[in-house]
Structure formats: C-alpha cells, structure tokens
Amino acid sequence: MMKNKQIFKTTIFIITVLTFLNAGTKDIYKQVRENQSLMNDVYRHLITNYVDDINLDVFTKMSINNMLYDLDP
C-alpha cells in the first residue's frame, strides 16, 4: 500500500513538472507566432505600397543580418 502511495505521488509530481515546462514553451511559440505575423504584415505592406519593386530575397537577408547585428554585443 505504501509503495502505491509513493508511486502515485511521484507520478503526480512528474505530471506537474512537465505541465509547467510545457506551459513555458507554449508561451515562447505564441510570441514567435505573433512576431512572425507582424513581419508578414510589414512584407505585405512593402510589397503592395512601396514605389519600387522589392527583391524579397535580398530584403529578407538584409533583415536577418540587421537583426543579428543588433543582437550581437
């Protein structure tokens, strides 16, 4: 009986820890989705409203390089 109680407590503890770890991960992916949506809006706005044509490959690489440059100390 005591062994079953210990197994039950251990199982509940593991489920609780995994739930909290998973909740933090979901928040990160939610932020990524929201920020990606913002980037898509910027692309859409530039493509439809910018006077000149935009080379999307060059623009994307430039954007990534600038983001990485800003992160690098």
Q: What's the layout of helices and strands?
A:
Blueprint: H1 2-49, H2 56-71
Structural key phrases:
elongated, mainly alpha, 73 residues, 88% helix, 0% strand, 2 helices
Q: Can I get a quick summary?
A:
By secondary structure, the chain is mostly helical. The mean pLDDT is 81.
Number of domains: 1
Number of alpha- plus pi-helical segments: 2
H-E order: HH
Mean pLDDT: 81
Query: What proportion of the residues is helical, as a percent range?
Result: over 70%
Bin the strand percentage: under 5%
Based on secondary structure, the structural category is mainly alpha
- Rg (C-alpha, Å): 23 Å
Q: What is the rounded distance between the termini?
A: 58 Å
Q: Give unreliable regions as ranges.
A: none
Structural notes for this entry:
This protein has 73 residues and is mostly helical. It has one domain (2-71). It has 2 helices and no strands. 0% of the residues are buried. The model has no long low-confidence stretch (mean pLDDT 81).
